[in-house]
Hints:
By secondary structure, the protein is α/β, with parallel strands linked by helices. The protein has 2 domains: 273 residues, Zn peptidases (Aminopeptidase, 3-Layer(aba) Sandwich), CATH 3.40.630; 179 residues, Glucose Oxidase, domain 1 (3-Layer(bba) Sandwich). Helix content is 39%, strand content 22%. The protein is built from 16 helices and 17 strands. Strand 12, helix 10 and strand 13 form a beta-alpha-beta unit. Helix 3 packs across helix 10. The site of zinc ion has 5 residues, from helix 10. Zinc ion binds next to helix 10.
Amino acid sequence: xxxxxCFFLVCCAAVSLSLSAQQVDSLFVRRIFDEALVNGHSYQRxxxxxxxxxxxxxxxxxxxxxxxxxxxxxxxxxxDSVYTQDVIVPVWERSETEALxxxxxxxxxxxxxxHKPADYLCxxxxxxxxxxxxxxxxxxxxxxxxxxxxxxxxxKIIVVNSKAELDSLGKAGRIKGAFVLFNRSFDERLINTFxxxxxxxxxxxxxxxxxxxxxxxxVLVRSMTNRCDxxxxxxxxxxxxxxxxxxxxxxxxxxxxxxxRLQQEDPDLExxxxxxxxxxxDRPSHNVIAATRGAVFPNRIIAFGGHFDSWDQxxxxxxxxxxxxxxxxALRILKALNYQPRHTLxxxxxxxxxxxxRGAKLYAREAQRxxxxxxxxxxxxxxxxxxxxxxxxxxxxxxxxxxxYLLEPYGIATLEPGGGGADIGPLKSVDPSVALLSFLPxxxxxxxxxxxxxxxxxxxxxxxxxxxxxxxxxxxxxxxQLLD
Length: 484
Ligand SMILES: [Zn+2]
């Protein structure tokens, strides 16, 4: 009798598992991957976005051209709804007047005597087009949000690797009138490059105001990358209103090495900077949304997407054109396979993640205002590289873990505790019950191109992008089946 009851219970458990996951068996997962890899649209669409629009800095004419392209593109697939949300975004513009120069007798003498300054430059040495000259133009770009200069600003360089170093030099009066180079590099021991980025990015975001407190004339920040090369990586910086606003540039990592070494051997080294960038009044822009209506819970939403804006270096291909194309392609694949979702599935291209997060904040506010319930939100903002898995909210991780066997054949079974992302964070603030997930591709190459002129379509691999789109589609289906 006892044995028979146990058998009955086991049968019930097996039936309920297969019922709750009726459309998430290994055959359906296989069909999702086949559709992405054989009939995929993500790579072609990303190419169109990168090559016909290019970069999409918030508030720029290109960003709005991109929005129009996205609307047309999504409408052509006849999803249940395609629409925009109006959002007011900040506007910061780079200028053609943008340069950093170095004047150094020591470097000039070395070059005249044909000494290679190789040890400054690691593998980038051969690329550095230095000839003996009165002054050298260095590979540097203004940080997003920086003020411009009136004419040229000049100063000696002070190199710091930590806040403590800045404070002690500042208290000794060494910072006044100087160019401060924040030169803390990525910790190469960290396997997850996002952790290395996280421990360095504060010097980019807050460095200018920290140095301005001690009277610095300008700030330079080592580019946020594992590479040693001649590409400068921009990114957002934020001023503290209690101190004067000083101009800030990112310098290529090889240039940061060069400056650090030269500063030790050349007391007369001088830098000059001229920037014409400026902040303009806010402008209207848009989030772009496409959705497939849920058959069982039409008012309960699973949102997935990336940010549509990008920095103005490169084409915003990995950051975050790839994330937007993952989301669009996931929605397309499920429609192509005639998948009938239980929840409303919503692909979202958020605007203004890079320098304001206005699109994400508006999206969450609107959801709250009209009483929409999000059961889950997934963000893809780590590039179009080989998928490895997902960061998963602890709210739902236990529910997902029994299905990791479906993900294993595709190498995407990593389900790290704790998902999230800049664009979906505001949803959690208005409703703590929404489960957040992040798509996790391989992180080793993201910071090679992040916010740099090298973030272009040519540096996206077709198969890697398609595998990512299929992975997002599979996770969306799992969420749709497992959540109420
Ligand atoms: Zn991004």
